[in-house]
């Protein structure tokens, strides 16, 4: 899977491409179905698959489930040929006709696109799937539109619903709609080194402006880039009221692990909440509380999450 943008699309000109259209925030089960269908359309043909998404989400007023790096990590498990990141500013004022001609046909060298039932495009979202089909016919671009993918209660799966579930702390529903655990990924940065002195070293990630579950302590899986192991861990997400008041952080204590991983890229899979963040008056109480969180999670791992693959929705 190659990551491309408008500055390196020469390969696309040498071949036929099927374009899979959308924002794809979170890569939920609806997105996954669309991707699979796009890949199916390309099978046994000379077409290459290009997932078309944006460097910045088309709605700039919302917090996102996934930054671009996280999106790429989640897309890696599919057999896509390319992920193309568009500058939204460049296309947001195009008319529907211009979008098809300038972007789909001229830029991406395509005559086949696939999107979901509610896909909209062009200036003020003036283009919908009917218009896309109509323009496609005029310009010899085949348009495939897939039906809505719904959850078990019949409600359409969307990034908006997943965002709400995560913000409300309903991780099990979010995980169901995503088809994978919510992830937090990034490079390990230096913390205050206090956690290590307390006996619980933590890998710190930068706290971003994205959708997080409510502040607190969570049981997680951790993957480190270049390391095939899946580690168990406890993550503290929040304000660190006792030791680092006012500083927002994401940090994870990886169980049975004692390597320095500063600068390494990690992915945290958030499983379930363990406890709230509490403000203590002394360090001893804090150390005892963290110890209890760790003990609780170790037992839970042993009893429930274990090392069986069936609970792992990566
Ligand atoms: C499992 C776990 C649970 C934590 N629970 C709390 C808590 O309840 N209250 C709190 O103020 N800080 C809590 N923290 C945060 C630590 O007190 C502390 O701020 C942090 O680990 C210091 O990080 P640093 O040395 O990596 O910068 C917790 C940390 C971990 C790893
Ligand atoms: N449940 C679904 N079933 C089928 N296709 C979907 C579903 N959800 C999204 N898609 C399609 O996947 C592509 C990317 O979707 P996009 O991320 O833009 O929408 P979304 O998931 O509904 O997000 P939001 O809730 O933010 O509108 C689009 O073509 C869209 O129509």
TrEMBL record:
Domain of life: Bacteria
Keyword Flavoprotein among record annotations: yes
Involved pathway(s): Cofactor biosynthesis; FMN biosynthesis; FMN from riboflavin (ATP route): step 1/1; Cofactor biosynthesis; FAD biosynthesis; FAD from FMN: step 1/1
Record protein name field: Riboflavin biosynthesis protein
Family: Belongs to the ribF family.
Catalytic activity: FMN + ATP + H(+) = FAD + diphosphate; riboflavin + ATP = FMN + ADP + H(+)
GO biological process, one term: FMN biosynthetic process
Phylogenetic classification of the source organism: Bacteria, Fusobacteriati, Fusobacteriota, Fusobacteriia, Fusobacteriales
Keywords: ATP-binding, FAD, Flavoprotein, FMN, Kinase, Multifunctional enzyme, Nucleotide-binding, Nucleotidyltransferase, Transferase
Annotated CDD domains: FAD_synthetase_N (cd02064)
SMART domains: Flavokinase
One GO molecular-function entry: riboflavin kinase activity
Main enzyme class: transferase
InterPro entries: FAD_synthase (IPR015864), Riboflavin_kinase (IPR023468), Riboflavin_kinase_bac (IPR002606), Riboflavin_kinase_bac/euk (IPR015865), Riboflavin_kinase_dom_sf (IPR023465), Rossmann-like_a/b/a_fold (IPR014729)
Enzyme Commission code: 2.7.1.26, 2.7.7.2
Organism: Sebaldella termitidis (strain ATCC 33386 / NCTC 11300)
Residue ranges of domain Riboflavin kinase in the record: 177-302
């Amino acid at each position: 899977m190659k990551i491309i943008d408008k500055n390196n699309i020469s390969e696309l000109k040498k071949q036929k491409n099927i374009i899979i259209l959308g924002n794809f925030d979170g890569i939920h089960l609806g997105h996954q179905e669309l991707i699979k269908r796009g890949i199916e359309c390309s099978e046994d043909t000379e077409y290459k698959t290009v997932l078309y998404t944006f460097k910045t989400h088309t709605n700039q007023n919302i917090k996102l489930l996934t930054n671009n790096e996280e999106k790429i990590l989640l897309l890696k498990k599919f057999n896509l040929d390319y992920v193309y990141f568009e500058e939204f500013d460049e296309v947001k004022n195009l008319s529907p006709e211009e979008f098809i001609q300038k972007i789909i046909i001229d830029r991406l060298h395509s005559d086949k696109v696939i999107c979901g039932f509610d896909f909209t495009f062009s200036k003020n979202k003036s283009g919908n799937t009917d218009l896309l089909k109509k323009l496609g016919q005029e310009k010899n671009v085949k348009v495939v539109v897939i039906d809505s993918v719904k959850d078990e209660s019949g409600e359409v799966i969307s990034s908006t619903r997943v965002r709400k579930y995560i913000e409300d702390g309903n991780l099990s529903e979010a995980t169901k709609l995503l088809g994978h655990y919510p992830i937090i990924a990034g490079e390990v940065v230096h913390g205050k080194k206090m956690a290590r002195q307390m006996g619980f070293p933590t890998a710190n990630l930068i706290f971003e402006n994205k959708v997080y579950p409510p502040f607190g302590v969570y049981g997680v899986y951790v993957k480190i880039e270049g390391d095939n192991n899946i580690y168990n861990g406890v993550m503290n997400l929040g304000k660190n009221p006792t030791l680092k008041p006012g500083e927002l952080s994401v940090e994870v204590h990886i169980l049975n692990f004692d390597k320095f991983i500063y600068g390494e890229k990690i992915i945290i899979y958030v499983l379930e909440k363990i406890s709230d963040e509490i403000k203590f008056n002394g360090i001893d109480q804090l150390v005892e509380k963290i110890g209890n969180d760790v003990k609780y999670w170790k037992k839970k791992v042993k009893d429930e999450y274990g090392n069986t693959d069936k609970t792992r929705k990566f």
